[in-house]
Each structure stands twice: as C-alpha cells, then as structure tokens.
Amino acid sequence: MTLIEIMIAMAILGLMMVLAWSTLKSASDARTTYTAIEERNHEIRLGLARLVADLESAYLSDNEDKTLDNRRTIFVGKEDEVRFSAFGHMTLWSDTNESDQTMIAYFLDDDREDPRVDSLFRKELRRPSNENWERQPGELDVLTRAVEKLEFEYWDWKDKKWRREWDSTKADGVAGRIPTRIRIKLTYKNARGDELTMTTQARPLLEERLGNGS
To answer: What is the spatial distance between Cα 143 and Cα 145, in angstroms, rounded to a whole number?
Structure first.
C-alpha cells in the first residue's frame, strides 16, 4: 500500500467519523429539544387541569348577608383573572378549624424569580370571611411559569353568548349566578421559542345557589 492510498483511506475514515458524530449530535439535540417541549406541554396541561378542577367546584350560597360588600361566596371573573368560592379545599391536618369551603383566585403576576416574565398564580383562603379579599391571609402558589397571556370567557346560558366579564354580586343579568361554562386560553412559549395557545373549558357542577334546604 502506497503512502497516497494510506492518506486517502485516513481521509475517508475521518470523513465517516465526522458524519457519524454529526448524526449522533443531531439526534441528541433533537431528543433534548423535544423532551423539553413535552415537559413544557405537560406543565401547561397540569396547570390547566388544576384550574379546571377548581372552577368545576365553584358554588354560591343564599345563606349569607347579601348587603355586605365582601361576601363569602362569589364568582367574579374578568378577561385575565377569576375569583370564586369553591368546595376545593383539602384539609391536611386533623382537628383544624377548616372545611372544604374556600375562596380561590387565579391571575397573572410578575414571576418571583424572574420579574421580566409573568407566571400563573393560584391564591387560596383557608377560612374565607367577610373581610376584604386582599387583606385576608392565604396560600399563594405558582401554578405555571413564564405565561404570555391568560384569557377567560364565561358562557351565559340565558342570553346564549360568551361574556368577557362576570360578577355574581352585581345587580345585573348575571347576579347570583355562575356561568355554565368557562373557556380558558393560555398562551405560552415552548422550548424552541414558538408561541402556542392551549384551550380548554370548565363546567361548574353547582349552577344553582345553595340554600337552607340544600
């Protein structure tokens, strides 16, 4: 074998090693990227599932003073936040002065670790009272980080239309009622920076107000 043949063989071997390394690296990068994408999608789905579960346990009660400004059972929804009474509280300690009744709010706010982005927060009151909502102590949790946009729509079965706002405490067409469906749109970016929107709906189980005979 001549020197030229050896050099040609080494060049071919080197080219094959470069091609093999490039293929393996591409496969590894693709796996890393799509794993991150699926983990991000899973995070979004879990957050929406928790939000839907809470909304489906929403309720209103007739057993309170409706002349008070701050009621214990409400459903107040805006385009980008919602606050409502629910049967969604889990009592973790025995003999505590708590029940399954609670008040929950979902909203976007600056992320605690990176103020440049917004995150989806969940606030829950263990013992809702007639005090102002903002002054009552509660548990604040980050449900989903780095959210671009949060949108709510509320279905009014009487008028057969979607509403952008809902307030069960005001004397208008939705007073004392809970929407029969709530449409939720969550816009986020995946691991590749693509902006996506995931949509779901919640159907509250208790549409009628609870009274003395309930």
So the answer is: 7
Range of the domain at 136: 44-202
Look at the block and give the residue holding tokens 């490039």: 22
Residue 183 tokens read as: 């449409």
Residue recorded with tokens 């080197």 = 14
Kindly tell me the sign of the dihedral angle through the C-alpha atoms of 126, 127, 133, 134: negative
d(CA 18, CA 105) in angstroms, rounded, equals 55
State in Å, rounded, how far the first CA of the chain is from the last one: 97
For residue 49, tell me if it sits in a domain: yes
pTM: 0.77
pLDDT in tens, 87-127: 866 655 555 656 667 889 999 999 888 888 899 999 988 66
Number of H helices, E strands in the chain: 1, 9
Does any domain span residue 94? yes
What's the structural domain count of the chain?
A: 1
Residue 53 within any structural domain of the chain: yes
